[in-house]
Write a structure and sequence with these properties.
By secondary structure, the chain is mainly alpha-helical. The chain is about 55% helix and about 10% strand.
């Protein structure tokens, strides 16, 4: 069980969204709608929200994959 999960009284696991996660998710949704940023937005969403990585080199690589 991760830090954003809680157990209901019946023992069922429920996912709890943080405010930061909701804001970042909305940002990535909007970014995906901008021309030429759809793939980048999905990579950033996975990197930040799923993997929990905020390190500059990883984010830079997601934004500029051809720069390596």
């Amino acid at each position: 069980m991760g830090p954003s999960d809680q157990l209901e009284p019946g023992g069922e696991q429920v996912h709890v969204t943080t405010v930061a996660g909701a804001v970042l998710s909305s940002f990535f949704d909007e970014l995906a709608r901008v021309d030429d940023f759809g793939e980048c937005a999905e990579q950033l969403r996975k990197l930040v929200l799923v993997d929990g990585v905020f390190a500059e080199p990883a984010v830079r690589n997601a934004l500029f994959p051809d720069s390596q």
